Amino acid sequence: MALPRQHQSSFTPREIEFLAGNETITIIPTVKLPKLDFIQGTIGPFQPPLKSTVPVWLALLMKRNNLCTVVPPEWLTVENLTSKLEDEQTEPEFSQLPFRYMELSHMLLEVASTDIPNAEQVRRLLKDLRETRQAKTRLGIQSLDDESLMMNNMSLMEINEIRPLFIRAFNEMRKLRQAEDT
């Protein structure tokens, strides 16, 4: 499939979600299952009510088939997200969140929202957090120079969103500096 030119230098959100599927998460199986053999290795056996750590893609597949309960990550709580949102609103730096927090939270809320306490409030906090971080990103781009972009603790999805703009702006500033030096 041919992508529009402006998207060729970045991943699609679905591709980024696919990459995030290999992150691990804790589940509580609801049925006893033997070891499962996959290309990436063997996972299991699963014995309720013992917790197991599995790739997110497997946790979501098992959840869709009612074979497990997903244990939400520590960072995906109302308390933690409220704290991060307050940090974002008061601190000049980006608050530290998992590198793939946007993709993981989207996938978990889509499939396992019943396992996440206060899922609707978590959704609202994530939306507010995203909007606050986007505003910070716009401010950071205003201070762009041709050597670096100093915005630490950005997620993969956030980096991917600004990549096409940054690449074009960086190249133009580099050309201007080269013309200035000659």
UniProtKB/TrEMBL annotation:
InterPro entries given in the database record: GINS_A, GINS_bundle-like_dom_sf, GINS_Psf2, PSF2_N
Localization per record: Nucleus
UniProt cross-references to Pfam families, sorted A to Z: PSF2_N, Sld5
Domain annotation GINS subunit: ranges: 75-174
GO biological processes: chromosome segregation; double-strand break repair via break-induced replication; nuclear DNA replication
Family according to the record: Belongs to the GINS2/PSF2 family.
Subunit text: Component of the GINS complex.
Protein known as: DNA replication complex GINS protein PSF2
